[in-house]
Amino acid sequence: MNTQGFLAPTLRSATAATLAASGYIHAQLYTDGYRFIRVIGPLFLLQASASLALAALLLIGTPPLPLRIAGAGVALGALGGFTASRTVGVFGFTEHGLQPAPQAALGLLAECGTLVLLVIWQVTVTRQHRTGPPPASAPREVAAAPALPGPAEGPLADHAIREHLRQRLG
Fold first, then answer.
1. What is the DSSP letter of 89?
2. 29 with 103: CB under 8 angstroms?
């Protein structure tokens, strides 16, 4: 297997793993007591649900571009909420440092890891589109297609194509 053929599934799986880790951490915090915090509790549940759903969709092979965008949004939202809760507060809720430990630090690692993996994945996809598809492992014989009549329009063109096919196919 060539490097490009191995890289995309690896990035897909690794991104799914970091999203799932973030979702699990937020779900755990929700059940451990955040569910009783007005507004914040439902936001933790929403973040956990979105992260776990995106991880599952990545693993089952849903088209990746919308998922990469959604994954980046979820990770950025979680990081934004984390930062706001330690600076200006979120809906009156504030925390300090890396509390609760170790979930805060693990969540930061998971969300930053998600963003790093998504950037690498997007750069890889962009480079593949610029350079074209990877070369095939073995060259194939391709039969030359019969030449069609030159460009023409209207009923005469249809007649010419039909006549050409009749001659070729008998």
1. -
2. yes
93 phi and psi, to 5 degrees? -100, 130
Query: pLDDT tens digits for 5-37?
Result: 788 899 999 999 999 999 999 999 999 999 999
Cβ burial of 79 (10 Å; 0-12, 13-18, 19+) is middle
Global pTM reads 0.74
What average pLDDT does the segment 63-79 reach?
93
Q: Cis ω on the peptide bond leading into residue 100 (within 30° of 0)?
A: yes
Residues 6+ apart with CB under 8 A from 76: 115
Mean pLDDT of 109-130: 92
Pairwise CA distance, residues 52 & 114, whole Å: 13
Report the helix count and the strand count for the chain, using DSSP H and E.
Answer: 5, 0
What CA–CA distance (Å, rounded) separates 84 from 97? 12
Question: What is the rounded distance in angstroms from the CA atom of residue 15 to the CA atom of residue 67?
Answer: 10
Find out whether 94 and 86 touch, Cβ atoms under 8 Å. yes
What spatial distance separates the first Cα and last Cα of the chain, rounded to whole Å? Answer: 44
